[in-house]
């Protein structure tokens, strides 16, 4: 799968999306974005938004949180900075251009890492998930929301056809939940704690992972 959505393709695609993103994609992703931010607020504290885009999610947070956003696309981050400069989101601490494959943060910096409509787009999703897990404190959560690939039936056939044409738009629809589950199994110390469909019509899936605390890992090792 690596190489089908490389950095250059992604930067080109989102330079085109940036001026129209809020109007075109904002409403389409709104319910999924809200559900993820709501789950992140339950964790609270220092929240990293990976692929923050234009910062549409800022209005879904409040002063009980401290938001840091990163995105590969300079034009998308420029929009997020404009939003930040409005003064309406004092809890947004920083937004920066950064590649999610190489997060420039120390281990265990954040209480929660959120990626809304991002993980299916990146070149190496497992590498990005490794990075999210690394910068997360023990006991913290990774929260993803995305359209995940239907593994059976008519929807799967349509998505397979669409995927052949989608990459030039910076999209990768052929991404099953099983891939996320396999990552958490292989990673160790990360568990899927929730998987649920969200509106509209259940087309998006919200997935929550929890990073076990050190004590939980050592007692699991002792038991196993
Ligand atoms: C569909 S948009 C979602 C934006 C935002 N999360 C939202 O829900 O409105 C995907 C975002 O992921 C960003 N992105 C793609 N690959 C990335 C990477 N490797 N590192 C950081 N951001 C990336 C894109 O630039 C784009 O802003």
Structure description:
41% of the residues lie in helices and 24% in strands. It is of the alpha/beta class and 224 residues long. The chain has a single domain (7-223), classed as Rossmann fold (3-Layer(aba) Sandwich), CATH 3.40.50. It has a seven-stranded mixed β-sheet with strand order 3-2-1-4-5-7-6, with helices on both faces. Residues 48-144 form the Methyltransferase type domain. Pfam families: Methyltransf_11. InterPro entries: Methyltransf_11 (IPR013216), Methyltransf_Superfamily (IPR050508), SAM-dependent_MTases_sf (IPR029063). GO terms for molecular function: S-adenosylmethionine-dependent methyltransferase activity.
Total separate domains:
1
Largest sheet composition: 7 strands, mixed
Tally of helical runs: 7
Mean pLDDT: 88
Small molecules (ligands, ions, cofactors) in the structure: S-adenosylmethionine
Number of strands: 7
In the CATH hierarchy, the architecture is 3-Layer(aba) Sandwich
Can you identify the CATH superfamily?
Vaccinia Virus protein VP39
Note poorly predicted spans: none
The assembly state of the depicted protein chains is single chain
- Cα Rg: 17 Å
Which CATH C-level class is it? Alpha Beta
Structural class: alpha/beta
Kindly identify the CATH topology. Answer: Rossmann fold
CA(first)-CA(last) distance: 34 Å
GO biological process, one term: methylation
Protein name: Class I SAM-dependent methyltransferase
InterPro entries: Methyltransf_11, Methyltransf_Superfamily, SAM-dependent_MTases_sf
GO molecular function: S-adenosylmethionine-dependent methyltransferase activity
């Amino acid at each position: 799968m690596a190489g089908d959505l490389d950095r250059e393709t992604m930067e080109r695609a989102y330079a085109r999306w940036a001026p129209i993103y809020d109007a075109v994609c904002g409403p389409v992703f709104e319910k999924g974005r809200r559900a993820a931010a709501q789950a992140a607020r339950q964790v609270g504290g220092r929240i990293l938004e990976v692929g923050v885009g234009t910062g549409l999610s800022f209005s879904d947070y409040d002063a009980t949180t401290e938001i840091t956003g990163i995105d590969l696309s300079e034009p998308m981050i420029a929009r997020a900075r404009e939003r930040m400069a409005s003064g309406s989101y004092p809890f947004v601490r920083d937004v920066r251009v950064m590649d999610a494959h190489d997060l420039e943060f120390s281990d265990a910096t954040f209480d929660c890492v959120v990626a809304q409509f991002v993980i299916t787009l990146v070149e190496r999703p497992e590498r990005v998930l490794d990075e999210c897990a690394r910068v997360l404190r023990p006991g913290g959560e990774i929260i993803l929301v995305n359209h995940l690939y239907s593994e059976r039936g008519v929807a799967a056939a349509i998505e397979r056809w669409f995927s052949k044409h989608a990459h030039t738009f910076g999209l990768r629809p052929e991404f099953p939940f099983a891939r996320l589950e396999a990552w958490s199994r292989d990673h160790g110390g990360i568990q899927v704690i929730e998987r649920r469909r969200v509106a509209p019509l259940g087309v998006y899936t919200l997935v929550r992972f929890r990073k076990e605390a050190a004590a939980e890992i050592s007692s699991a090792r002792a038991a196993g």
